[in-house]
Amino acid sequence: MLLDGLTAVDATLHVDDGVFWLFANVVEGREDRGQLCLFSSRSLDGEWRPHPRNPIVTDPGRARPAGRIFTRAGAHIRPSQDCARRYGEAIVLNRVDVLSPTEYRETPVGRIEPDWLAGLEGTHTYTFDSRYEFLDGYRHVARVQRPALRVR
Predict the structure, then answer these.
(1) Using one digit for the tens of pLDDT, what is the confidence trace for 123-151?
(2) Least packed by Cβ within 10 Å: which of 12, 55, 99, 143?
(3) pTM score, whole prediction
């Protein structure tokens, strides 16, 4: 466990210039308040320090992580879930403008709507590797109820 006493979801680890950064959506009690917090450490098993600007994002439309941070055209991009109206409605791509021990700023620069496959109601994860690109989505599927078995 990296951080004792903290309940977090969709934690995302990012390493930049020898610093480990952990982005995590913090949950208080049973309530997800849509607050993104940031922690840093010089090693994975070292002391983790909370960022002085925590929570760094309080907008439920882009706080919750949605995949690993990646670099495009020299900029770090942090995917996030748009949970403003409902969980994982879409993915927001945020350009990380400042990431330092004392400051954090990001700007939304793109969005992935759940229109990439017919019938989707939401999409909440984006990632890729050298060969594959991954998106996940969800939709409600009607289930047929089986009649109860009668035992005689």
Answers:
(1) 989 999 999 999 999 888 877 777 777 77
(2) 143
(3) 0.87
- CATH classification of the domain holding 109: 2.115.10.20
Q: What is the helix, strand, coil percentage profile of the chain, to 5?
A: 0, 50, 50
Query: Total domain count for the chain?
Result: 1
**96 lies in some domain:** yes
Indicate the helix (H) or strand (E) that contains 134.
Answer: strand 133-138
The order of strands in the sheet holding 104-112 is 70-72, 75-82, 90-99, 104-112
Domain that holds residue 18: 8-138
Could you tell me which residues come within 8 angstroms of residue 56 by beta carbon, excluding any fewer than 6 positions away? Answer: 36, 37, 38, 104
Tens-digit pLDDT profile for residues 86-96: 888 999 999 99
Kindly state whether residue 34 falls inside one of the protein's structural domains.
yes
Q: How far apart are CA 22 and CA 29, in angstroms?
A: 21
Which residues does 14 contact at the CB level (< 8 Å), separation at least 6? 20, 21, 22, 23, 68, 69, 76
For the stretch 41-78, pLDDT in tens is: 999 999 999 999 999 999 999 999 999 999 999 999 99
